[in-house]
Specification:
Layout lengths: L8 E5 L3 H12 L3 E6 L5 H14 L14 E4 L5 H11 L4 E4 L3 H6 L4 H7 L4 E6 L14 H7 L20 H23 L6 E6 H8 L1 H10 L16 E5 L5 E5 L3 H10 L14 H6 L1 H12 L4 H9 L5 E3 L3 H5 L2 H6 L2 E5 L5 E5 L21 H10 L1
Parallel strand pairs: 1-2, 1-4, 2-3, 4-5, 5-6
Antiparallel strand pairs: 7-8, 8-9, 10-11
Helix pairs in contact: 1-7, 7-8
């Protein structure tokens, strides 16, 4: 299957993982993505990359998984001659994914005006923690700090306990997805309006997290109710959460609608729950979620996880296992969809990694992580011969 972005060339600069993820997805969808391996241009890049290297980097060779499928060119943008090569390369590209601070780029003579002079119809997507303007624009940041500043951490953890950041890098992932969408939006706009001027699109990781918290913020802004940590319980329905079975395994359940509640009670043989005034509707169940949780815990303790899964499936109840990573890699669903595929690192090591979830857009043809600067001679040679 032909990938949809096969005729596009994107330049990526900076060490931010969000920029890398946006570039990886564009590459997966067929774009030629060239990553500039440059010296960090400011402290923000260095601080951000420390946390990201641990989270996303591979032990062998320090590869970043998000660099799969990309070409790698080494340039020192502090050198005037190599900055000229950067500009010449940029002139051949449709878009620039930029994880550098505007201040650092401006100090090198690569501000927005200069970039547009090089490529008048360039789509320039800039990704940063707080965005390109505002009182926090120049602040250093990390994944944990963005989760904290956005209010996300204030909603996580056990009830009455300390705030807890998410186990995964949600801000980084959301920022990368938004960066990819921004680039595609800009390119689509250019395609539909031939000759349209260059555009700069500013993506903030903090704004991206807030977009992901739309449900919680809507509740607060409409009702004034401030979301607080409730563990695995949920403010808008009950019962929701993880419950232990007789064999010590756990199941995550979610009962939202009245029809789901009726089916859940009936399939467990607990029609008496339907007569409890405390459980008579969703508002009552939310108000009495602790009592309801005790009832469900006692009921689940009668069955092994396998027995309970078979029972709940009879009425299409909403449930799932709490899987660790080995279980997910070997999951029947991920196996059927080809979610994990082999990637080759820059040292030749082959390992499994998750692919993009867009079935129908083609899987990435190139799943190799090139070493830094591996394509410098070939790419710059094209410039010399053109």
């Amino acid at each position: 299957m032909e990938t949809p972005l096969r005729k596009l060339r994107i330049l990526e600069i900076g060490t931010l993982e969000s920029t890398g993820m946006a570039g990886m997805l564009l590459s997966d969808l067929g774009a030629e993505v060239i990553r500039i391996d440059a010296q960090p241009l400011d402290g923000a890049e260095t601080v951000q990359s420390v946390e990201d290297a641990v989270t996303f980097g591979l032990p062998a060779g320090g590869d970043r998984l998000c660099d799969r499928g990309k070409k790698r060119v080494s340039l020192d943008l502090r050198d005037a001659g190599q900055r000229d090569l950067f500009k010449r390369l940029l002139a051949t590209c449709d878009g620039l994914l930029d994880g550098c601070s505007p201040r650092a780029m401006a100090e090198l003579g690569l501000d927005e005006e200069a970039l547009q002079a090089v490529s008048p119809d360039l789509v320039h997507t800039r990704i940063s923690g707080y965005g390109g303007f505002g009182p926090y624009a120049d602040r250093l940041w990390s994944e944990a700090v963005i989760q904290a500043e956005s209010g996300f951490v204030s909603t996580t953890g056990m009830e009455g306990g300390d705030p807890v950041r998410s186990g995964g890098d949600m801000a980084t992932a959301l920022g990368g997805l938004m960066g990819c969408i921004a680039m595609l939006m800009g390119l689509l706009g250019r395609y539909k309006a031939s000759g349209s001027p260059a555009r700069e699109i500013d993506v903030s990781l903090m704004d991206s997290v807030l977009f992901g918290l739309e449900n919680q913020f809507s509740l607060y802004l409409k009702s004034g109710v401030i979301p607080r940590p409730k563990g695995n319980n949920y403010a808008l329905s009950a019962p929701v959460g993880n419950f232990r079975c007789k064999d010590g395994e756990e199941i995550m359940i979610s009962v939202a609608t009245e029809a789901q509640w009726k089916a859940f009670a009936e399939v467990l043989g607990r029609e008496d729950w339907l007569a409890y005034p405390e459980f008579s509707n969703v508002s009552q169940r939310i108000a009495h979620y602790k009592l309801l949780g005790e009832e469900v815990s006692a009921e689940f303790a009668r069955y092994t996880r396998a027995e309970l899964m078979e029972i709940l499936q009879r009425r299409s109840c909403v449930y799932g296992c709490i899987n660790d990573f080995p279980a997910v890699v070997n999951h029947r669903q991920t196996a059927q969809r080809g979610t994990f595929a082999e990637v080759t690192g820059s040292d030749g090591a082959v390992f499994l990694a998750p692919m993009h979830p867009l079935i129908g857009c083609g899987r990435p043809e190139c799943r190799v992580i090139h070493a830094p600067g591996a394509d410098t001679e070939a790419i710059l040679g094209e410039l010399q011969s053109s």
